[in-house]
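User: I'm preparing a small set of examples for a lab meeting where we compare how different chains pack in three dimensions. I only have the primary sequence for this one, and I'd like the structure in token form so I can line it up with the others. Please keep the answer compact; I'll paste it straight into my notes.
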Amino acid sequence: MKPNLKACGQAMMTALVNAVLALVLMLLVEFAISGSFRVPAAYLWACLVIWLVIFVGQFWRMRYLCQGSKPLHKEA
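Assistant: Understood. Below is the structure token output for the 76-residue chain.
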């Protein structure tokens, strides 16, 4: 259970950082185009989707890596 929690925590932080960076980039582009920092709902939905996709991918990857360090079978 502990490797799953560790993988979940690392995946959540990676996904959060990437989603925040995506939001900042979208806001900078919005400001460059329109001159205002309006946050349309589409930007928030896009960040949520980015967070979800990265979280699932990183969680799966980290779980696989954590299980890869364990032996597959016990030696007698």
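A couple of notes for your slides: Residues 1-41 form one domain. Helices lie at 2-34, 41-68.

User: Perfect, thanks.
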